[in-house]
Amino acid sequence: MDLLEYQGKQLFARHGLRVSSGEAVDSVDDAVAVAERVGYPVVVKAQVLIGGRGKAGGVKLAANADEAREHATNILGMDIKGHTVRTLWIEHASDIASEYYASVLLDRSAKAPLVMFSTEGGVDIEEVAEKTPEKLIRHHVDALAGLTREEALTIARDGGVDADVVEGVADALVALYEVWLQEDATLAEINPLIVTPEREVRALDAKVSLDGNALYRHEENSGLSDPENEDPIERRAKENGVQYVALDGDIGIMGNGAGLVMSTLDVVSLAGGAPANFLDAGGGSDAAKVEQAIGLILSNPRVKAVLINIFGGITRCDEVANGLIGAFHALSPSVPFVVRLDGTNDVAGRELLEQAGLAGVHTAGTMNEAAEKVVALAGGAG
Ligand code: GDP
Ligand code: MN
């Protein structure tokens, strides 16, 4: 779950990281009212879940009410790489002496939290990593001990920050690590982390992703998810308690069990196809549930063909077949389906489906056969 900049900054502030005072607004008049309150100069900032807002014209300084009004008018409704700006963050502008970079994330291959820091902030950090890797400090943290102040001081010194802000940067790193850990974030990033002419260290931007599966531990963060920015099908799936993840391709996927669905994605990719989604229908064969799941898959207009991959265990394939038949009658889909039924009562299940004589519904006995069929039906490998 990605947070908007201002939401990330709220979490930062909660953990003692310095941020500028400001307010989120969704109208030009409110933008000007907040600007008056926080005092000029202000920064008018587009709140969208995509980086590079500055370059796109979504971050502007305003010295007075006229400029605040002008920028708010221009930025509200602006499209930034496919994201429409509906919210602005107005904060008191900072004077900048230096721009640094700091982030915390989990390095899966090292099985440890990773703190990254660079004095080359305010720019694309991937570029720093590529062109001047020596300027990007990468420090793995002992997950049990956490990031100690000594370690943070070393990172700041090794990073080459000005001597008088080593302490301030170390404090910011410790606070950022605390945000990452205590808020169950998957990423906590500040770019730029600035030093003001008064030598104060402050987060000027915030990129925070929270682990959605840990949200139940954070009552206070549950309101942070922004339905406007979610994939509409994922949102509906969540409301219906269906495990659905949107992907880029054109082959709809449904299976029972997360592991089976993930291997289905792999097998379809190996056959040259591109999955449009992950959908785990779970156990059970309830026609209403199957119908709901198929409805979700078909509401993606990119879907050209659908693969249903069921491995019968406790769930019997003949029951699943009946559920599917009911769902197909109710939905009469216009794209072809391939149904692979394997496991308990699979022969009976396939017979039921074939007897039902549903147009555009094909059966398969194995996963590979099913994947090849569905890729061909979707228009071949692409
Ligand atoms: P991003 O482009 O989406 O990463 O948005 P940022 O929040 O990082 O802002 C982009 C750039 O605008 C920053 O790197 C700064 O150079 C500049 N900027 C943002 N806020 C201020 C501010 O308060 N004062 C000044 N002088 N520049 C700012
Ligand atoms: Mn930034």
Task: Write a brief structural summary.
The protein is of the alpha+beta class and 382 residues long. It has helices spanning 5-14, 28-38, 65-75, 125-131, 149-159, 166-182, 232-239, 258-270, 287-298, 317-331, 346-356, 367-377; strands at residues 22-25, 42-46, 59-62, 79-80, 83-84, 88-92, 98-107, 112-118, 137-140, 185-195, 201-203, 207-210, 243-246, 251-255, 277-280, 305-312, 337-343, 361-364.
Explain what the structure shows:
The model has no long low-confidence stretch (mean pLDDT 93). Helix 2 packs across helix 3 (65-75) and helix 5 packs across helix 6 (166-182). With 382 residues, this protein is α+β, with helices and mostly antiparallel strands. Strands 7, 8, 9, 10, 11 and 12 form a six-stranded antiparallel beta sheet that branches. The protein has three domains: 21-92, Dna Ligase, domain 1, CATH 3.30.1490; 98-224, ATP-grasp fold, B domain (D-amino Acid Aminotransferase, Chain A, domain 1, 2-Layer Sandwich), CATH 3.30.470.20; 232-377, Succinyl-CoA synthetase domains (Rossmann fold). The chain has helices at residues 5-14, 28-38, 65-75, 125-131, 149-159, 166-182, 232-239, 258-270, 287-298, 317-331, 346-356, 367-377, and strands spanning 22-25, 42-46, 59-62, 79-80, 83-84, 88-92, 98-107, 112-118, 137-140, 185-195, 201-203, 207-210, 243-246, 251-255, 277-280, 305-312, 337-343, 361-364. Helices cover 36% and strands 24% of the residues. Bound molecules: guanosine-5'-diphosphate (GDP) and manganese (II) ion.
